Amino acid sequence: MEHIFVTVSARLRDRWTRAFPQALAVADTAAIPHASESPSGVVWLDTSSMGGDEVMNSLTEAVAFGWPVVAMTPTPEEAQAFKMLNAGAVGYCHVKAVPEQLREIGIVVQHGGVWMPPDLMQRFIKLSTRIAPPPPVNTRELNELTSRELMVAEQVAHGASNREIATNLEISERTVKAHLSVIFDKMGVRDRVQLALAMNSVPIYTSVN
User: Fold this and answer.
1) How far apart are CA 138 and CA 115, in angstroms?
2) CATH number of 122-208
3) Is 2-115 a CATH 3.40.50.2300 domain?
4) Considering only Cβ atoms within 10 Å of each terminal Cβ, which end of the chain, N or C, has fewer?
5) pTM recorded for the entire structure
6) Among candidates 89, 86, 34, 13, which has minimal Cα distance to 58?
7) 2-29, pLDDT tens digit by residue?
8) Phi/psi at 69 (nearest 5 deg)?
9) Element (H or E) spanning 6, and its range?
10) Residue 108 backbone phi and psi in degrees, to 5
11) In 3D, which of 87, 93, 96, 100 has the Cα closest to residue 120?
């Protein structure tokens, strides 16, 4: 799985290479097709030095390439996040996200999921619950969860990060990730965004990303 970072400087930041040692960097989206012959990968769009129109144009071009696109920004904002997700991005994060978080985002989007910062996800969930009438939650799926898995799922529903869940439940982050993997499978969801929507009784649609 290839990781290509689109950044004006065409240089990889240290945290990017620590997350993905084999990552590549290009100066603009036009160079993406020539950067790698890999059949699949993730495009990371660094918007730090881009203006408004340039950001959306670059995003459109990156999405057209066909790989999952993660938009990276120095100042995450709710309106911009929803605008970029609506335009085809499947991930939205801080440009200075730590390597561990970058790897987590990469795994989520590679498997068809959507990733955004927990605080934005929480606001997204609240907005969704106001727009979509909540139907009864699928109790059969919930009954398949163990008590600890249900605790983790409820934490996700409130927008908690893996680290916060680990602290709240007094378990390791690795254990949180293991629980989430099982929960996703039992609940029939692809990522923590869909899980949060399901736990808040919002309909799940495969076109969420």
Assistant:
1) 23
2) 1.10.10.10
3) yes
4) N
5) 0.69
6) 89
7) 999 999 999 999 999 999 999 999 999 9
8) -115, 130
9) strand 2-6
10) -60, -50
11) 93
